[in-house]
Each structure stands twice: as structure tokens, then as C-alpha cells.
Hints:
Structural class: alpha+beta
CATH class: Alpha Beta
Number of domains: 1
Strand order of the largest sheet: 3-1-2-4
Distance between the termini: 20 Å
Strand content: 25-35%
Largest sheet: 4 strands, antiparallel
Order of helices and strands: EEHEHE
Shape: globular
Amino acid sequence: MKCSVFKSERMELAYLYVPHGADLHTLPENLLQNFGEPSLVLELDLHETRKLALANPRDVMQSIKEQGFYLQMPPPANHVVRTL
């Protein structure tokens, strides 16, 4: 699944995963209001075995299929980020 990843201007370390080429204006209004202006940071080919720093790729893909997006929120303060 090709997807695009956007960072939030309002929520530090929050990222929005959507299908590549998706029209962001079709996402829920409250999501867009809270997320702020999205800034494209990455385009990737997402598959079950791809390693992501803070999310399970299967969960991301399932959420995109069901909701049209996956919102990655900032980790807890004591969370250790693994390197890729």
C-alpha cells in the first residue's frame, strides 16, 4: 500500500498516514481542525513487514482501509523510540 505521511503543525510528534494521492479535504473536519495544516514528510510503500518507529504496520494499514487514515499520536514521555 503506497501512503503519504504528514506531520502536524499543531500537535508535536503527531503524524497522519493516508493513501498516496488521497484528498485530505475528505477527512473528518474535527481531525483536520485539531491536526492543523498538514506538511508532507514522507511517501512510502507500506506492507506488513515494514518496520515503523512508533506504530504497527498492520494497524496502520487496517486503519487506513477502514477509516481512510491513521493518526499517530506522540509517544508517552518515558517511551524509548527504536531506530530503524
